[in-house]
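go over whats below:
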Amino acid sequence: MSDPHRDRDPDRELVEAASEGDVSEHDPEHDPEHGHDHDPDRGPGGAPDDRPVHSEPVDLGAAVAGSRVLPLGTDGILIETEGLDESLALFGALLAQPVAGILDVVPAPRTVAVRFLPALLPVASLMSVVRSLPNSRDAATEGRLVEIPVHYDGVDLDEVARLSGLSPDEVVDRHTAATYTVAFTGFAPGFAYLSGGDPDLAVPRRSSPRTHVPAGAVALAGEFSGVYPRESPGGWQIVGRTDVPLWDLAERVPALLQPGMRVRFVEALTEPTATPEADEGTVTATATPPAPGGAAPRPERALVVAAPGPHSILEDLGRPGRSGLGVSRSGAMDHRALREANRLVGAATGSAALEMAYGGLRAAARGDLVLAVSGAPVPITIDGASGPRTAAIGAAFALDDGDVLTVGAPPRGVYSYLAVRGGWDVEPVLDSASGDVLAHLGPERLRAGDELGVGHAWSESVAAAAPDAQPSVSAPDEVTFLDVVLGPRDDWFTPAAVERLTTQRWTVTGQSNRIGLRLEGDVPLDRAVEGELPSEATVSGALQVPPSGQPVLFMADHPVTGGYPVVACVVGDQLDRAAQVPVGAQVRFRVVPGPELGAGRRGGRRDAHLDERLAAERGVEQ
């Protein structure tokens, strides 16, 4: 999905690094998320935006009254703003006055996304809340100034000096003189785009990105400064380094920087000295010593992995409401199948289960275990002391100590879920046991030799077998229909392209994974607007369209923000169905009504058949 005319940035390079988690072999240049986000050389999302950030009060009433409000699926809206000031003011006001039913708020340079529970907070009520917000920012973020000590010995310092026409010392002086604002977070936990720097330091990225940029690298690109939160590929110009962790799971709030905060870089002293007393409201960040470690005890009951299959990873229902930290929800690709597997073994339905893409698991039991599999209908074989036997999907079965479990490939569908009575013993990260392949949070994908320990969680009675209740999953030769709500950026595409979205078939390609399904149609979608889109929030189910015109359907581990237009969003309760469409199968999209935002609020275009459809707005499974 790469575009040779579009430069690389950390968002793209980090997502390519996540391609190790793909369910099929492919070139990282064709990762489904490749090219999704901003181009710092041209400002956020590639769009020129060199306006300074101010902190004067914003008239939210006037700003919201004149804004377009666009649908973001059935449980989200995207409010356009005049710029970063208005976005941060609206974001802060929503944080300062929590409203029951609002799930998440994501600011961006020219938009604020709000996800909500329609059953608890109807969209009309949400709009009334937005229009009545006071003119303020959240004091917990806007009033906080974080100082980050930097050793200015970066490998690109001389190059930045050459590009800016300054001396290296002048570059350091200019960089430390500015007070930055966290404009938004994006591609990775802990990474913040810092706006408000000296215009003379607006330099392009390197022509050839590095394959490894160390954690703590302080870098420049376009109008932004940033600090790499972890080692990754990257193409920004490195001017220094800091020992301060930008992301620390040992902290109550893992992300040091969040939208609306202010940041000042200070040149680190070469000799140890007493820390000067900071101004009130200023936090001087310091390095965190490593936590003591130790070998984990060997679990008494476990599943010992001999072969993990193409992609197996522990998942629960995810970690919603963490977008402000740069973290998407993640969680199981098929929520319904995960809940069913847990129900069958008497576990809490939201417990973690082993998500297996295309089966392939072989593992031995240590101790006696009770298991169940739901989702894609995989063949299950057990080799024990009395010989081989089979187990049925959709029913609990027992493993004796030493039995070997083999899970084959499904004839249809993609994801199967293996639950255990007592629950898998896994340490939660941000209140979830889900593995996020993009953010590198939670459990890693399973490898040969891993041991899945079994816990002692309270359990109900084992549920009755229900093989006929398994959710329908698609075969490779079938066409799956998915309902979509147009927008938020359907007006960036020609009418013919919007029509083509729903009339032609789209094939799921082999470059699909938990981040997204890369789709391919006979005719790509043509853009009506050729400019670059400032980065804005994305959601699971978003159909983002890169320059190739071939859509990417964002799934569980999608990025928090993206810089290509989203033409439509798959209805939330159909994401389980979308997840089970295998490589090579085809999908068709059908337009259904989205939130009723009032006349003229959608951006000027409605689907020709939208008013003919009387289907009720679908709810979102939480």
